[in-house]
Structures are given as structure tokens and as C-alpha cells.
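Researcher: Predict the fold of Multidrug DMT transporter permease.
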Amino acid sequence: MNFSWIWIPATLIAAAAQTARNATQRELVDAAGPAGAAFVRFLYGAPFAALFLFILCGISGYAPNPLTLKGAAWIAAAAVAQIAATGLMLAAMRRRSFFATIALTKTEPLQIAAFGLAFLGERPSVSTATAILLSTAGVAILSLPPGFFKHGSSGRPVGLSGTADRRAVVLGLASASCFALSAIGFRAGILEFNGPTFIIAAVAALAAALSFQALLILVLLLLFDRPLLRTISSQWRPSLFAGFIGAFASLFWFLAFAVQSAAPVRTLGLVEVVFARVVSRWIFREAASKAELLGAGLIVCGVALLLNG
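Model: C-alpha cells for Multidrug DMT transporter permease follow.
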């Protein structure tokens, strides 16, 4: 049976779950700081990933193939990049709204297309490249601060708030770069597992990645920041949900990466910006800018072109 289409529903589920995870982590920033909030998804997510793999192998009767040294290197590099990306994203959220930060990180597909071509030789089609450009333009417009198109007496856009705002942009774009590198690395690692089925390969790669991330973070905290480890432990109730929903989101990202290259997956994943708009408005009570309709429209056009190209 041909499962090449499965990346579409998998990506939509992943994007929705990721929005919930990001919102949960943002709520943890005040209590645990950006680093602590970033770490909980890995420390509390690893057991859930191992549980997913255990259940899948028990139901299917298959075990994952041994991971090659090359595959382990890809997964380890991607895991470190993802940790950095999450920390940078949460740091940006302290300076910009939840929605604006998510929009900044979604410049990722352009970078993924470049990294995918450089590292994996995956060249996007003309329609896919156009979809990426349209959607990324929409994200760029969405990320503009309110009042950007209004000018004050100095001729400067009133929406620019100085150094703090510029730092948020730099942090958001750096986060996107790290997320792009992690997506390429995880896809390469999944392909190195090479079966026995694409589902088992994806879940095995997820379990390996989260286990490595949890072990790395635990060792670093034990050596250098035990107070932060105690803080994370004290926040176990919200952290447990963040870990579960993070592992759940990653499960579907990895399933999508198992059957489709990273650039189309992450381009469709831009629907997370729409989900983030809803969360930003109704949960965090953050006002919308007038540019959002135009930006959202470009994203919808890009996604439609991607799915019909």
C-alpha cells in the first residue's frame, strides 16, 4: 500500500500539537526561565517516546534495525540543534508576543530548502520553491510589529521598539536556522534506520533523539546547574504535559519526515502560524496587527500551491 500521502495529515497533527507545546512551555518561562522551559520537553518527553516505540514494536512484532554510526551522528547533531532552537525561541518570546515569535521561527522552510540541497541533495520543484517563497513572505509580514506601517514624527515606523525588538528578531531567526538544521538531521537519521517499516524507523529515531537529548541535558544540569534541575523537578505537573505533547508532536513530524523531504513538510507546517494566532488572541490576549490578514493569505496560498503542485 502506498503511504506517501500520510505526510499531509501527520504534518497537520504535528503543527497543532506543537502549538499546544509551545504555549505550555511559554507558561513555564517565568517559573523556570527560558533554559528550564526549553529543557522540560526533552527531559519529560523521552519516557513517552520510549513508550511509543515499546507499544509499536509490541503491536507490530517488528524491532527497529540497528542504527548506523552515520545515522547516530545525524541524530545527535540534530538533537543539539533542536535544543538550541527551543531555547532561542523561548528567549525571543520574552521580547515579542507568542504569535510574532512563532512567525519569526517559520522562516525555517527557506533555510531547510538550502540545507536539504547542500546536505542531502534534495532539490525542490519549481512549484514547491514558489510555495516556500509565498509562505515565507506571508510569515515575514506576520512577524512585523503592530504599527510598522505607521510613521512617527521622526519618520521612523512607530512599531519599532528599539534594541529589544531587534534582539527578538535576531533570536527568532537564529531559532529558525537551528530548527532547519535539526529537521534535515532528523530526516537523514530516519533514512539511516532503513526500516523494517517507515513507521518503526521514525519512532525509533524519535526515541533515540529524545533519549540523547534528555541524557545530555541531565548530565549538564548535574554538573553545572543543579538549582535549575530542582526548579524543573518542582514544576513537574505542567512539565509532564509539555513533555507528552512535545513527544506527540515530534512523533508526527518524524512520520512526515520518513516519507517526504523536510522542505515540503515544514512548508505545510506553516499552518502552525494560524494555530498560534488563535492561541495568541484567545489565551494570551495579544492584539492582532492589520498586516496579519495579508500574511495569513499568502501562507494559505503557499500551502494550497504546495498541496496541488
